[in-house]
From TrEMBL:
Family (UniProt): Belongs to the V-ATPase e1/e2 subunit family.
Gene Ontology molecular functions: proton-transporting ATPase activity, rotational mechanism
Primary localisation category: membrane
Keywords associated with the record: Hydrogen ion transport, Ion transport, Membrane, Transmembrane, Transmembrane helix, Transport
Transmembrane segments: 7-25, 37-55
Cellular component terms per the entry's GO annotation: endomembrane system; proton-transporting V-type ATPase, V0 domain
Protein name as annotated: V-type proton ATPase subunit
Pfam family, any one: ATP_synt_H
InterPro entries in UniProt: ATPase_V0-cplx_e1/e2_su
Membrane topology: Multi-pass membrane protein
Gene behind the chain: RvY_05351-1
Entry's localization field: Endomembrane system
Length: 78
């Protein structure tokens, strides 16, 4: 399973929450606030997931060591 399937599924899920959710809110005095909360929740959760997912695709490299340090480690630890 490549990167496309999770990206499409999660994007569609949060797009449905942020796009369709506000239209399902019943009429009351706080309707605008609830709509705003739904959209902001969908955007924030999606962005958090996207950053966490993309960071796992390209992890940070470990520390870079000098050749002298590597030789010393090999000599001392083996």
């Amino acid at each position: 399973m490549g990167i496309e399937v999770p990206m499409i599924v999660v994007t569609l899920f949060w797009a449905a929450i942020g796009g369709l959710g506000p239209f399902l809110v019943p009429r009351n005095t706080d309707r605008g606030l609830v709509r705003t909360m739904l959209v902001l929740t969908a955007v924030c959760c999606y962005m958090f997931w996207l950053v966490a997912y993309l960071c796992q695709l390209n992890p940070l490299f470990g520390p870079r060591m000098d050749a002298k340090v590597l030789i010393a480690m090999q000599r001392e630890w083996s």
